[in-house]
Amino acid sequence: MELILGLLSGAVGGNVAGKLLGNLDQGTLINSLSGIVGGGLGGTILSAMGVGGAEGMDVAGILAQVAGGGVGGCVVLAIVGAVRNMMSK
């Protein structure tokens, strides 16, 4: 369940970051895919650190997974956008 939350919030985070940072926007598909990868990584890292979902799915765990997935999605999208922008120049 934690992984699904991380993936979904990562996709949302990637799209939100793409719209807020117009120069890194890669379109809905790439934003979503980058966000999903980042959300999965962010959620996995948080779980490995013992944050979010370690003692079950309580409200704090769910919020931690959503926040970690969203931030992870933003970070991976920023990296993908920066690399693609550098390659196009």
Compile the SSE list and pairings.
Layout: H1 2-20, H2 28-48, H3 59-87
Can you describe this structure?
There is one protein chain. The chain is mainly α. Helix content is 78%, strand content 0%. It contains 3 helices and no strands. It has helices spanning 2-20, 28-48, 59-87. Helix 1 crosses helix 2. The mean pLDDT is 84.
Sum this structure up briefly:
The protein is built from three helices and no strands.
Report the strand count.
Answer: 0
Biggest sheet details: none
Query: Radius of gyration over alpha carbons?
Result: 13 Å
Structural class: mainly alpha
| Multimeric status of the protein | single chain
Unreliable spans are none
**What proportion of the residues form beta strands (DSSP E)?**
under 5%
Averaged pLDDT: 84
Globally, the shape reads elongated
Notable traits:
89 residues, 0% strand, mainly alpha
